[in-house]
Specification:
The complex is a heterodimer. Chain A is globular. The longest helix of chain A is centred in the middle third of the chain and has 14 residues. By secondary structure, chain A is of the alpha/beta class. By secondary structure, chain B is an all-alpha fold. Chain B has a domain of about 210 residues. Chain B contains 15 helices and no strands. The longest helix of chain B has 27 residues. The two termini of chain B are about 45 Å apart. The chains are: A alpha/beta, B mainly alpha. Chains A and B meet through helix 2, helix 3 and helix 4 of A and helix 1, helix 8, helix 9, helix 10 and helix 11 of B.
């Protein structure tokens, strides 16, 4: 949001605004997510972080403003069309198929990406390449041992990992992680951090997170959102030092 | 995780191979044919020989199972609620009836034309109403059925209105097998068509498309997020379901030689739901259990207590909702699981 960079960003929003009646949830947000970025979006409860994810991913239509993906305007595209262009999100609250196995959950995403999901004739189990790709992905993220278990039978931490694995099955170029560690027991948070740190470097990652330990461990850049507005953006060191941020956000925990 | 692994990469170790194959096979196994699936067909063939006097009722049951399958595809698999599926059933019935009453009595081509017309009506009405869901959608499906009912009622010159469509002449099947008084040909004709429809349903629900329908039913937010064109998928399901409903209606028109306004009625839409719920929703075979149970009970009760039989159906439904969620198939599943658990 400073200067005019020449290369198009992975994601760029301009004057992005969402209001429900008189209530403005996202207030003219200008935001850039660079290619291969590890960028965190933080802010107190109700700052509009998840709304921002919903706007960028296409789950919500903005009241005004534009969203560009790799320089191309995607504001009017559906969520599905944005996913096809590599813009993928995860959810703060698990949105998984609880009765299906981990392998099937990831398999559904792979099938959709391959364009095979419209096929009404071929038995799903016959798509060996899809299942093989899904399984390989599970191996990469350390979920292979759980491949045949139903989501409902997994620990919450592993469910959260599956949430990310499903997104990876779509081969994202931009990944919006909405509080990936929300609700994960402290002992398992390390698993999630490892997973995020091991994401391929060419994926631009926008991390929405409350847990400062994760943010400062993963993010190279931080944007602070308050009341729908960008308060400040900078490096983790700069954000940690900033008095305004300490006041509205970090200050919640009484600085020591 | 060093870089993107190509999907075609060969497994590097033997253990990986075994575990991976086991996991993939476990998934593939979920839709392998089981010997149990022969049961409905054995029962249908046995009924042909054991109850030669009830073949007319048998034909109705077989044709109605197709209708229940079409509703199951929507409610059980795609999670699309409908209280107006008689619209598509009736469209098929009137299409086949009008063809046969106006000089084209060939049953097989009549059936296909009925399927096409119903699919078209389903596709157009679906495109209009599937944007909504829940109660709103329920009302919209009711409205479509009510509209078509009134159209058929007012177009009395063609449809016979409240008196029903008269003068259908259905030719022999393939020009060879004349529909006989005992209903043997009708029964075998219905059984064959049901078998084809079941095969189509079974293939579809086990395909990637069918899996994505279940995904839409289970978690539509996630399906949007993995890039599924949800509206288009639902419309495809609705159109296919409409074609099946149309085939069912056409079969009943052709085998009874009559079409009345009842084929488009709310009662028709409601009773098929009850039959499906009795059998079990979203399990493919619920239709094969619920429809015969309901229709045989209706036939028996109607002779014993013609006025009172709805009371028994009502009582049965209350029992089902309280004690047997998942219908008859649900009871069977629990029974099998308990036996396995005890063993």
């Amino acid at each position: 949001m400073t200067g005019t960079p020449t290369t198009p960003a992975a994601i760029e929003t301009r004057q992005l605004r969402k209001s429900f009646g008189a209530f403005v949830v996202t207030d003219d947000v200008d935001f850039r997510l660079e290619h291969g970025a590890r960028h965190a979006l933080i802010g107190p409860n109700g700052a509009g972080k998840t709304t921002f994810v919903n706007l960028v991913s296409g789950a919500l239509a903005p009241t005004s403003g534009t969203i560009a993906l790799n320089g191309a305007d995607v504001t009017s595209l559906s969520q599905a069309q944005r996913v096809k262009r590599g813009l993928v999100r995860t959810f703060q609250i698990n949105q998984l198929f609880r009765k299906l196995t981990v392998l099937e959950n990831v398999g559904l995403a792979v099938t959709e990406r391959n364009g095979l999901a419209g096929n009404a004739w071929r038995p799903a189990g016959r798509n060996r390449a899809v299942l093989d790709e899904a399984y390989t992905l599970l191996e990469r993220v350390g979920l292979a041992a759980d491949a045949s278990r139903a989501i409902a039978d997994l620990s919450y931490g592993r469910q959260r990992m599956t949430e990310i694995a499903v997104a990876l099955g779509l081969k994202p170029k931009v990944l919006l992680l909405d509080e990936p560690a929300a609700g994960v027991p402290t002992g398992d948070v390390g698993l999630i951090i490892d997973l995020i740190e091991q994401l391929p470097a060419d994926i631009a990652v926008l991390l929405i997170e409350h847990d400062m330990a994760i943010v400062f461990r993963v993010a190279k850049r931080i944007t602070v959102l308050t009341e729908g507005r960008v308060l400040i953006e900078g490096t983790p060191a700069a954000i940690a030092q900033n008095p305004k941020v300490r006041e509205v956000y970090l200050g919640e925990r009484k600085p020591q | 995780m060093t870089s993107e692994t190509p999907t075609t990469s060969k497994p590097n170790t033997a253990t990986r191979d075994v575990a991976a194959t086991a996991a993939m096979d476990a998934f593939a196994r979920t839709h392998r044919l089981s010997p149990l699936e022969a049961l409905p067909w054995l029962a249908a063939v046995a009924a042909y020989f054991v109850f030669p006097d009830y073949l007319a009722l048998g034909s109705q049951i077989l044709a109605t199972i197709i209708f229940a399958l079409s509703v199951d595809l929507l409610i059980g698999y795609a999670g699309i609620v409908t209280l107006g599926h008689a619209a598509l059933f009736g469209t098929g019935a009137y299409t086949a009836g009008l063809l046969a009453a106006n000089g084209w009595g060939d049953p097989v081509s009549g059936l296909l034309i009925a399927a096409l017309v119903s699919a078209l009506v389903g596709c157009v009405s679906g495109a209009l109403i599937l944007r909504t869901h829940g109660l709103t959608l329920l009302m919209q499906t009711l409205v479509v059925a009510a509209l078509l009912y009134e159209v058929a009622n007012k177009a009395g010159y063609y449809t016979g209105g409240g008196d029903g469509l008269q003068g259908m002449e259905v030719w022999p099947v393939f020009g060879l097998y004349r529909f006989d008084m005992l209903g043997k040909v009708a029964y075998l004709y219905c059984l064959t068509v049901l078998c084809v429809c079941w095969l189509v349903m079974r293939i579809v629900v086990n395909s990637a498309f069918g899996r994505s329908l279940m995904g839409i039913r289970e978690n539509v937010a996630r399906m949007h997020a993995i890039g599924t064109p949800v509206e288009r998928r639902k419309l495809m399901a609705y159109t296919l379901s409409a074609a099946l409903a149309g085939i069912s209606g056409a079969l009943i028109a052709q085998t009874t030689g009559f079409v009345g306004l009842g084929v488009l009625s709310l009662e028709r839409s409601g009773s098929i739901l009850i039959m499906l719920i009795i059998g079990g929703v979203g399990q493919l075979y619920g239709a094969f259990i619920g429809v015969p149970l309901y229709m045989i009970a209706q036939d028996r009760f109607a002779t014993i207590a013609p006025v009172f039989w709805y009371f028994w159906i009502g009582l049965f439904m209350v029992f089902l909702v309280l004690f047997a969620r998942g219908g008859a198939l649900g009871i069977l599943h629990r029974f099998v699981r308990r036996k396995e658990g005890g063993a």
